[in-house]
Request: fold
Amino acid sequence: MPKVKIPRKSTSVDMTAMCDVSFLLLTFFILTTQFKPDEAVTVQTPGSISKSKLPDVDVFTITVDSAGRAYFGIYNHEGLKKTVISAMNDAYSLDLTQEQINAFGKIGSFGTSLSNFKNLLNAESYERKNKEFMGGIPIDTANNELGKWVTNSLDAWYIMQGVTTKKVPSVAIKGHKKAGYPVIKRIIAILQEENLNKFKFVTELKAKN
Amino acid sequence: MAELDTSAKGGHGKGRKGPKKQSTRIDLTPMVDLAFLLVTFFMLTTTFSKPQVMDIVMPVKDKEQQEEQQINQTELRQSEAMTVIIGGGDTLVYYFGLDTAKLSVIPEFKPTNKGAYESIRKAITDKQLELENDDDPKTKKINLFVVIKPSDFSSYQNLVDVLDMMNFTEVKKYAIVDVAESDLSIYNNRKK
Reply:
């Protein structure tokens, strides 16, 4: 029986094309990426067919979790955050050091009452989600701390933009599906006290059926 | 490029003279590995889609006078108004008209539990059609006005669902209003 010669072929493939593609993708993702902001809580938002999107900048969020606790967040402005916390520091004599003010710039959203706020700023980043800092911002009429945050944030924002600005900050309410309506009603009332009659409800995409 | 470099070996064996030719080809496999690793990392950390939002505009309320005016305005709209009350446990109740206290005939309440949203959606589209086909010049060009009254037992999901329905049925005018006492009492009676 004659020997059948099988030509030996190299099993390796030319990687250049693959390399090109992967780096193209890599470049795309590096340029488009925006890191997820550090949120105190992640909530499951209800679905809607709405098509508008939340803007990237000038966003203040009020998150409401399933137990009805409120969290406040300022996004994409480290400078603005420092202005806000300085104003809060002066107005409510929180007695913060410069270091603590800088620490606030790194915090995404928070749900800590003002009495405990200094401890939150002193805490390490991994400790910030401990139970004592997650009690929610008081929203009741007797101790309306959320209102204070909203007022000071909006004031700071308008100072930063200049009084004649035509831009408007967006305030988004991000509620958990199961959050009770009274809490939402109270938050809307707080916003309306600040003359803020336009705001947004954050929702998830739902197929139009 | 990533082939095994056989030429160098073979060349030696054949006893070729001159400087040894080194291949300029490099094995790119580790580089591709690295690149894909980074791609995966960026893909997972990126917030690729921005969160969706629903724009809410609440009426400005600062002066009593203004409020009174609004009530007078809305009183004209009895015929084009529809009230949706959101109760506890995902129940919805709707009736045509604004406020039970202001109506001469107490409207029929239609508590809708199962398929609540479908039945209300149908009611809205029916009413819209009816208003559209209205030939009376006095009441013509009237749009449906939906008053949403979420009770304290309702959840945020219920509210967003109803608002979503407004977008879906293209109701241009709607408002979120507190539940009136009369609404609540009738709602409670019907529940029994």
